[in-house]
Design brief:
With 348 residues, the protein is of the alpha/beta class. 40% of the residues lie in helices and 17% in strands. The strands form 4 sheets. The chain has a 7-stranded parallel sheet with strand order 3-2-1-4-5-6-11, sandwiched between helices. Strands 8-15-14-13 form a 4-stranded mixed sheet. α3 (64-74) runs parallel beside α5 (95-115), α7 (197-209) packs parallel to α9 (259-269) and α9 crosses α11 (329-346). The structure holds NADP nicotinamide-adenine-dinucleotide phosphate (NAP) and ligand F7E.
């Protein structure tokens, strides 16, 4: 019999990749959206059009009764909890809502499974994050963060995710639930929201190349991230739930790059070479061929506390899950810029 999966946050970046992957693997896929059950709801009609096989359930992660009802009715074999306020910068502006959704929302989902009496049968995946580590010197291993590394979150988002991570472990230890935590480093791609730095850059580069935008404004160019491709990472999520035992798994590439490198490589994909002039907030990215300013710094995008560097060690996932990322850093930048060039050109 086909297995049944329930995905919260199905309209987000990972939700889209995961729904497609599970459908291809023969799962019956339920996807949770928040809002009202109306065909005119933009998210609803978009998802229905792109992935007609996803059975949509309208519920909010804040609403335990709706989650419990969904669990009682669907009795899923696997639950992937991807819903969250996931933007780190935004979490500083709305820390209370972030705690409620990104933190306590995980408890709501776990409790819903228990209230439906499914704690011994339903497998649970929690979307934990490298933001829990924080990137500070004192807790940063040279070779990259492993599952055992020390946590020091640097944002309301990271703190809320740490609660989600520990309550998942607690339900594993207290009730014997198959509750697994994937500690994922940044993963990007053509489905990434435009508020995240990689997609903001690839979109702007495409628009600048096509003469639809003059300048790209960014915050901190020197922070470093371990960036992989989201399509590779959802395969890792699925593998985690196929193991004999639940656990914690880091998914990462083992490489780290600055925002500045991403900018340079993205422009290079369109034949533009960027040179940098000036310092700090006055720094400018200039088109070497024309002398035109294409990149400026806008302090609005700085964060009250920054995670300067993230680097993950995926050895456990590679060994135990047989997982390996396929897309490397240049491949990721190329894929995103090519997608946005096509998309922006098509929009006229
Ligand atoms: P995303 O694109 O921001 O998607 C998150 C989804 O959660 C959105 O579709 C959002 O719905 C939904 N959501 C937010 N609040 C909700 C609520 N109260 N009830 C129901 N749904 C709600 O995030 P992503 O990049 O796909 O990431 C998936 C998960 O992995 C997130 O939990 C994220 O924190 C975590 N994570 C991501 C990365 C990464 O690099 N992408 C790395 C580590 C961990 P709306 O569309 O209605 O806002
Ligand atoms: O920022 C810097 C910013 O917003 C990356 C989420 O998926 O990954 C993501 O969180 C870096 C930061 O992602 C801009 O200061 C510079 O240093 O793309 P981001 P993130 O904060 O790393 C983790 C693993 C998650 O779990 C999260 O859910 O880029 N930066 N200039 C900028 N960032 C943004 N957004 N916009 C700028 O203009």
């Amino acid at each position: 019999m086909a297995k049944t999966a329930f995905i919260t946050g199905v309209a987000g970046q990972d939700g889209g990749h995961l729904a497609k992957l599970l459908h291809e693997k023969g799962y019956v896929v339920y996807g949770m959206l928040r809002g009202q059950l109306e065909a005119s709801h933009p998210r609803y009609s978009q998802l229905k059009q792109e992935m007609p096989y996803v059975k949509i359930v309208m519920a909010d992660l804040l609403d335990l009764s709706a989650l419990a009802r969904a669990m009682q009715e669907i009795k899923p074999d696997e639950v992937y909890n991807l819903a969250a306020i996931s933007h780190v910068g935004y979490s500083f502006r709305d820390p209370v809502l972030t705690a409620d959704i990104t933190g306590k929302g995980v408890l709501n989902m776990l409790e819903a499974i228990r209230l439906a009496g499914l704690e011994k049968t339903t497998r649970f995946y929690q979307a934990s994050t490298s933001e829990m580590f924080g990137g500070l010197d004192y807790n940063r291993p040279e070779e990259g963060y492993t599952e055992e590394a020390r946590f020091h979150p640097r944002s309301p988002y990271g703190v809320a995710k740490l609660y989600g991570h520990w309550i998942t472990k607690n339900y594993r230890e207290s009730y014997g639930m198959f509750a697994t935590s994937g500690i994922l480093f940044n993963h990007e791609g053509e489905r990434r929201g435009p508020e995240f730095v990689t997609r903001k850059i690839s979109k702007a580069v495409a628009r600048i190349k096509l003469g639809k935008q003059d300048v790209l404004e960014l915050g901190n160019l020197d922070s470093k991230r371990d960036w992989g491709y989201a399509g590779d990472y959802v395969e890792g999520m699925w593998r985690m739930l196929q193991q004999d035992e639940p656990g914690d798994f880091v998914l990462a590439t083992g490489e780290t790059h600055t925002i500045r490198e991403f900018v340079e490589l993205a422009f290079k994909e369109t034949g533009i070479e960027i040179t940098w002039q000036g310092k700090d907030v006055d720094e400018l990215g200039i088109d070497k061929a024309t002398g035109k300013t294409l990149v400026k710094i806008n302090p609005e995008f700085f964060r009250p506390a920054e995670v300067d560097i993230l680097l993950g060690d995926p050895t456990k996932a590679e060994t135990v899950l047989g997982w390996k990322r396929e897309v490397d850093f240049p491949g990721l930048v190329k894929l995103m810029v090519e997608y946005d060039l096509g998309f922006e050109a098509g929009r006229g």
